[in-house]
Design a protein that fits this description.
19% helix; alpha/beta; seven-stranded mixed β-sheet; Quinone Oxidoreductase, Chain A, domain 1
């Protein structure tokens, strides 16, 4: 264990080149620098040891070459600088009155082993540790709050509503569907593989689910599941899916635009042809950014934590080990299965990186958890500590 004040090596994942489509593995590189584990004298900075880092679909936008006419809600990364995202960390030293040594926090950090966070206003102290810490990069973090705000505040759900969720097996979609089921809604989701469809039906309790890749006509697929139309659409995909949904919305339907992952890397985005439906059907369609709703986080925790503890909501994570594994999500062979379906990736540090179909080894607060790898040909300990491990999905 590194000691505050000493000089240590610090592995980082940095952006080497901007992409023009989906990011590629070659656009990123792992480098090692030296860092002194000490905050500047008189500074309000916080020095942390990163434990979990998350790889979210919106990061694609930050890795694209800047274009003046490209719409984006985030600034592009600087070449040669570490990737910035959400994570879980342990405070090693603090000059900020809100944090002290030993605190567990979640929020904005960099993809590296150790981070000196000069503006810790983006960090939140973790008060509830009876759930896996990795949950604060997922169900209890940004994705969870996104699902909560988007569904309950933007969609204004009512009991019995007919709800459709695209990219429904992703970090946000799986929660939206479960929130809807708790309100006795009829819920259908789309996903990109048979395994994910099975997950929606058998793990998350969706009433229906289909593999959009196997549907020749999305409009007809939606009519099959929603013969009376859709009241609520939680939009994660955009493009042809959105166009088909508009044809199937009911009068006064509500659409929460959370993401459009299919459009992020496109130089020429797909056009939407059925916008007249918004007028004719008097549809309320609203985009939202979770950053504008951070003030809802405590209320969100008060709502969701009891549901987790009572087993009324379940959650699936994918975990990979080592900061070098941060390059794996961007390999061409994984993009379709991961980013395009809004799959949730965790990068776990010690480095246990929570990625596709891996359970990782991590020592947190003196507790060692080890998990079984179920996907690639990499050797990991086949020991599991049930209290800190969640289900994995074989693909």
């Amino acid at each position: 264990m590194a000691v505050v004040g000493e000089e240590v090596s610090n592995k980082q994942v940095v952006l080497k080149d901007y992409g023009t489509g989906f990011p590629k593995e070659s656009d990123l590189e792992v480098r090692t620098i030296t860092i002194r584990l000490k905050i500047p004298e008189g500074s309000k900075a916080v020095l942390v040891k990163n434990l979990y880092l998350s790889c979210d679909p919106y990061l694609c936008l930050r890795m694209l070459k800047p274009e003046p006419d490209r719409p984006s809600f985030v600034e592009p990364y600087k070449l040669g600088s570490p990737i910035i995202g959400f994570g879980v960390a342990k405070v090693l030293e603090s000059g900020h009155p809100n944090f002290k040594k030993g605190d567990l926090v979640w929020g904005t950090t960099e993809w590296e082993e150790y981070s000196l966070i000069t503006s810790p206003e983006g960090l939140f102290k973790i008060e509830h540790t009876d759930v896996p810490l990795s949950y604060y990069t997922g169900i209890l973090g940004m994705p969870g709050l996104t699902a909560y705000v988007g569904f309950h505040h933007i969609c204004s759900p009512r009991k019995g509503d007919r709800v459709f969720v695209s990219a429904a097996s992703g970090a946000v979609g799986q929660l939206v569907g479960q929130f809807a089921k708790l309100m006795d809604c009829y819920v259908v989701g789309s996903a990109g593989s048979k395994e994910k469809v099975d997950l929606l039906l058998n793990k998350f309790g969706f009433d229906g689910a289909f593999n959009y890749k196997e549907e020749q006509d999305l409009n007809m697929a939606l009519k099959r599941y929603f013969p009376e139309g859709i009241d609520i659409y939680f939009e994660n995909v955009g493009g042809k899916m959105l166009d088909s949904v508009l044809l199937n919305m009911r009068i006064h339907g509500r659409i929460a635009v959370c993401g459009m992952i299919s459009q992020y890397p496109l130089v020429q985005p797909d056009g939407v042809h059925n916008l007249l439906c918004v007028l004719v059907k008097q549809i309320h369609m609203e985009g939202f950014l979770v950053y504008d709703h951070i003030d809802q986080h405590l209320k969100f925790l008060d709502t969701v934590l009891p549901l987790i503890r009572e087993g009324k909501i379940t959650y699936v994570e994918d975990i990979a080990e080592g900061i070098e594994s941060a390059l794996l999500p961007w390999s061409a062979s994984l993009l379709a299965a991961t980013l395009a379906s809004n799959w949730w990736w965790l990068l776990v540090n010690e480095l246990a990186l929570v990625c596709m179909y891996i359970y990782a080894v991590e020592e947190i607060a003196g507790k060692s958890s080890a998990c079984m790898y179920v996907g690639r040909k990499t050797k990991l300990p086949a020991v599991c500590e049930e209290s800190l491990i969640i289900d994995s999905v074989k693909n």
